[in-house]
Amino acid sequence: MIILVLNCGSSSVKYSLFSMGSEEIRLVRGSLERIGLPGARLIQETSDHKVECIISAAGHSQAIAELLHILAKTCQSILPSLDNIDAAGHRIVHGGDRFNDAVKIDDEILRYLWDQSYLAPLHNPPNLMGMKAISRLLPKIPQVAVFDTAFHQTLPPRAYLYALPYDLYKKYRIRRYGFHGTSHRYVAQEASRIMGKPLKDLKLLTCHLGNGSSIAAVKYGKSVDTTMGFTPLEGLAMGTRCGDVDPAVILFLQDRLGLSPSEIGDILNRQSGMVGLSGFSSDMREILKAVYLDGMGLDGALNTNHLRHERSKIALGVYIYRIRRYIGAYAAAMGGVDAIVFTGGIGQNLSIIQNEACRGLEFMGVDMGSNMKSGMVSGIKSTAYLGQGCYQLSSLTSNVKVLAIPTDEELMIARDTLRTIQTL
């Protein structure tokens, strides 16, 4: 079965084509950037060729029409016709509290999702535009929605409710939803495979660290707590998002600066986090470079950019501390932990982050061994390579395993799409 997976952002579309059977094979991976702007750019790769081109994409409908045209034109050996596509799976950021699993799209569900777009106004509308485009271009194939929030629907009320008047939850569904659920679910399953133990017997902490970051407590296969909340703003310090903040700060900004809700939202979502603290970059690689490479010259003296070095140290300290604090809190919430899993662009690739996040966790049974002394700014310092891009970072004798596992949300969406249409 051939499944097309789409992840539609506000100005981009990421896509993959999978052959799903006894083997799961990614046939095509592609991305389309700058939708709605001049010079929209498409990059597409298969096992034996790469396509890069500039296309016209005034909106998502035109963008998806163009990528389907290029798929049909350049991939005839693996996709003789667009009629060979059997189903489409879509990443949907927010499913509210109605959906705890993937669902086949029909008119009623599509209307419901449009009505609920106020919960994720920046993310859900472009996600749904992708569905609308496929309905027009490939009207015969079933479509499946896979929700970032679905995995976290197992949170108990004590974890998802805010201590606000209960009527606000009942009327406006103000609660913690959590995000990155597809990623957390994928790496939890991979950790179970690597450790050779059933997921139902494991207590895992999965750390998805990228420009947006979250941690999930996965107890016996179910998410029981997670750092993101009503929106993806809560929790860890991120590239441009503030994470946890006293709500009174918002009232203070409104009062003292006379800012509108949208202006405050812009500060919290786009001007905070690493870029706000460091003053120059949201990219963790640049923060690390400022601290570990630019900060000290070969003679041990600070370079001339002293301010950038000091503010980057502060930003990095906040970032690491938040991760470590939540790891400890969630280990307590689960009554222990069997493994800590790092994934995402930062989590799976940057040794300094992995090591510093685990520093001081020896009391929990974490032993990073010689890796703690690696001092690597980038790359992975591992105890063992486990195959398929996975590494063990902790010592072989560590009671709590620390793993680096690449996430694959698109493969998870393809699996969910196949399972959903087969069970109808």
The CATH class of the largest domain is: Alpha Beta
Intertermini distance: 16 Å
Shape: globular
Number of domains: 2
From the coordinates shown, what is the CATH architecture of the largest domain? 2-Layer Sandwich
In the CATH hierarchy, the third-tier topology of the largest domain is known as Nucleotidyltransferase, domain 5
Q: Tell me the radius of gyration.
A: 22 Å
Residue-averaged pLDDT: 93
State the major sheet. 8 strands, mixed
| N-to-C order of helices and strands | EEEEEHEEHHEHHHEEEHHHHHEHHEEEH
DSSP helix count?
Answer: 14
Strand order of the largest sheet: 5-4-3-2-1-6-8-7
- State the fourth-level CATH superfamily of the largest domain: ATPase, nucleotide binding domain
Percentage of residues assigned to helices: 25-40%
DSSP strand tally: 15
| Helical/strand content category | alpha+beta
Which residues form runs of ≥5 with pLDDT under 50? 296-302
Strand content bin:
15-25%
